[in-house]
């Protein structure tokens, strides 16, 4: 009897896998085909739907807290704050991870597992959170230099307050070590995270200039 049960169980398991895999595949394709930017605008125009997806986003963000901290305020110097970012900007970064324009194996796998509404919900949640900045101690001269360089080079894209917009990141209150490493990566112009505009504006900066700018924007609220 035992010998007869083994092939029967194997057959049933194979049947379950065969019937569930297409459904999962179809769900993944359906999510991938959603215009996320349009869905975000649709949700933002509907208060009830916004409230619903904020709850969804908060639930998913609990997993993200392992790296990005509670409410998107990172406690790890090399991992960015997500709190206070523009939702459209954050959503575009999720897209870039999912198509390989930004590379991080863990992030890519996690983002691909999210449904479209989970992605929209999570960016709505993080954008609604207050940034708890943790600026490093620096002297007034470095802050003054940083403000001067920021005013000359950075504000046109990131705003006078460093809050960014739909296309450019909020850098006010950002983790200083992460921000420094990111600027230097843009300056080098190599790797998957490249941007011609950022490269043109950062290649004129020395390391000491970058240190000053980072010190200044990390103090912005």
Instruction: Please summarize the sheet with the most strands.
Output: none
| Main structural class | mainly alpha
The name of the CATH superfamily of the largest domain reads Cytochrome c-like domain
CATH architecture of the largest domain: Orthogonal Bundle
Q: In angstroms, what is the radius of gyration?
A: 22 Å
DSSP helical segment count: 11
- Distance from N terminus to C terminus (CA atoms, Å) equals 72 Å
CATH names the topology of the largest domain as: Cytochrome Bc1 Complex, Chain D, domain 2
Number of domains: 2
- Mean pLDDT score, rounded? 87
CATH class categorisation of the largest domain:
Mainly Alpha
Query: Helix and strand string, N-terminal first?
Result: HHHHHHHHHHH
Quick summary:
The protein has about 220 residues and is an all-alpha fold.
Account of the protein in words:
With 221 residues, this protein is mainly alpha-helical. The chain has helices at 2-32, 36-44, 47-68, 87-99, 105-112, 116-127, 140-153, 155-158, 176-188, 196-202, 207-219. It has 2 domains: 34-127, Cytochrome c-like domain (Cytochrome Bc1 Complex, Chain D, domain 2); 140-219, Cytochrome c-like domain (Cytochrome Bc1 Complex, Chain D, domain 2, Orthogonal Bundle). The chain contains 11 helices and no strands. Helix 4 crosses helix 5, helix 7 (140-153) packs across helix 11 and helix 9 (176-188) packs across helix 11 (207-219). The longest helix is centred in the first third of the chain and has 31 residues, at 2-32. The chain is globular and about 50 Å long. The N and C termini lie far apart (72 Å).
